Amino acid sequence: MLKRSITATAALLGATAALTLSSTTFANDHQGDINPWQHCGIGAAIFDTNTTAAAISNVIWDSGTTAVTSATISPETCESEAIKVAQFVDETYDQLAMEAAMGEGNHLSAALGLVGCDASDTASISQLRSDLSTVSASSNYSSMSHNDKAYSFYTSLNQAAANCSAS
Amino acid sequence: MRRLWLTTLLLCSLFSPFVHANIATLSQDSQWLSLLHFDRETPFSPPRSAVIDSAFFLAENGRYDPQAELEATLAALREPPDEPGSHASCRFPARAVWLSTKTGEQWPSAECPEFDEWQAQHQDSEIGLMFATGYLGNPASFFGHVMLHSSAPKTQSSSTNTQYLLDTSLNFGADVPNDEGLVTYMAKGLFGGYDAQFSNASFYRNTALYSEREMRDLWHYQLGLTDAEKSLLTAHLFEIVGKDYEYLFLSQNCASRIARTLELVIEDDLTPGYSPWVAPENLLRALSNTTHHGKPLLVETQQIPSRRLTTQREFNALNSHQQRAANAVWPSENDLRMDAPLFTVLSAAQRSEVLDTLLSHASFLRQTGDIEKLPEIERQLLQARLSLPTGRADVSNEAMPAIHEVTPPSLVSFSGVHNSHSNNGARLRFRPLQYDLLDTNQARMPNSAVEIATVEINTNDQGVSLNRLGLFNITNLHTNAIALPTLPSTAWQISAGIERNRLSCRRCFDGIANVLGGKSWALGQHLPYALAGAQLRTQRHYDGIAVPMLEAGVVSSWSPSQRTHIQLSHRPNMGYNNRQRTEWQVQHRIALSTQWDMRFEFQHDYSANEASIGLSRYF
Q: Is A26 on the interface with B (CB under 8 A)?
């Protein structure tokens, strides 16, 4: 009985430790593991593309699709905080790129806040600007797909988040 | 164990103070009816809940019988908990709180993981509304849209919430199939056939749709509710999200449903249940006039400008050198010249401001046209901006009135009329909705008109007669307000109604429908336009069912309170024997207040002249 209690306690402690570790930082949560655009169906027309319905104020939208397309990715993975960040980046990429170039803005603040960085963290903003400058330096940027651009920004945001949590 | 519970419940029931209370009285309490979404006044049908989802009711006939639903809810709340999340106090936490307050009973403790998560997400949140201004891209959006809005509390160190994009909006809307045809959509919207739901989504999705795509300004209305009221309302929102409701575009819509929801904690009737239509504007005006606990219910309004307005403000904030530089850098849609001398001579800070404006304009163009080289232009603008220091100019925003502060939509006017062919008389005009080119204002879509169901009645010594019945008149002059390259936009007007064939005839009526398209130009305070199209009509007094039509005019805004509209129309009756028609009219409006104005009108056609002077009341 005692042995069973010790085992149960150890399991509980282990589980608690695992939970604690898993929630330490956003960056450690998923960095480089998955591409939400490929694996979770993000970018697959969150908004209706039907011109009539899309223009209707009263149209109902869902809260985002999380269609799992890979057997290796669990539904839980595609409902994580990281996916919320990816959805935000996907939905607002154009504003994020513009505000990153300017160095400030509401979308940029929200994105940094989502990954646990201070909205005015200059190191993070510099990181995002530098990465965006590199990606957009090539004329190929003009023909890049929206998903590729968004994933690039998302990756850059992850790196900024890692730096935030480390500092 | 179950027997023990039942015994306990029986004892509780016997000694509960509520056993002596009148269940019938409690079931008619306005808050209970609000919790069930019973409309307070329903002249054409027996009282019933607007919710049609059986999962929302615990009694079999709960949708029609609030007392049965109350009794069933009490019984369910007294039940011992079973599976986590399945107890009545988990499914209906607002009912549980309200009934506990009213009866003094405590319910068995239950695990409610979904509600706990909901509460954690919305703990201490402020409850308000988000209003999206009207949009002429779709008939359902002419009158704007309103949503419930749950926003994170402002921190003590900051007066503004910098993370507001991550707030939550609760949107009430009809569930319309993607492939629904326009006729079916309108018929079902007006006469029934759609279900509707409250859905919740992050606010940034609304800004992406309304601000960035449809170029509609958003207005946040923050309400002054107590903590207990916010808590009850938040719990109630958990109960209703995802439940199916009845939907009618005119009366059972976002405005009326949100009004009924807020009436859970607000004593006043925010919108009348008997009204044949309820527009979002009606609800916002009611909220602005409501006193709650001795204070105004409306704490503050905050505008979230559309991309179009943001770009316009940024461009207007540039000095003349910067504006010329912006035009030199981007002289036409597909032409970007980053080496333009007018631009390169500017300081780094000034160049940054120019580039910020151009980036914002590129974002505007992305949604409003298909410009071949726009992706490359955006790339070059991004690169140029990234090479300059960070920081944005503080653009001092012109204070704009919110929708509840401007002229109301319904109008009744009384005019004295002189007709050169008949005797003097009087005219009564009633326009229930919404605004015309003379009384439109900053809170509405610029340079547009939406007039629905306008009726004009004449009276003189010959008796009373109809002058005009305007079914609708939708005008969008679609003028570009920014001196930056854009694709040509089409001004248009569609209208239909019953009109007199000529000014000299009292009862020569024909049905007409006009469809016109063209262009307008912004020339300072003047807005000239030219439209061409066709008129379809009945042939009681006309020859020919369809004729081409030309229309030209100018709207001149002399001051915020004075505006003139001159209009010339010509219908060459090609192929018909009837004479061609050239008509013109001049209208001048003087706003006396937001509720009153005076209008002067002069009309001319081949048969007579007509002049009128009238006083209008808006409500």
A: no
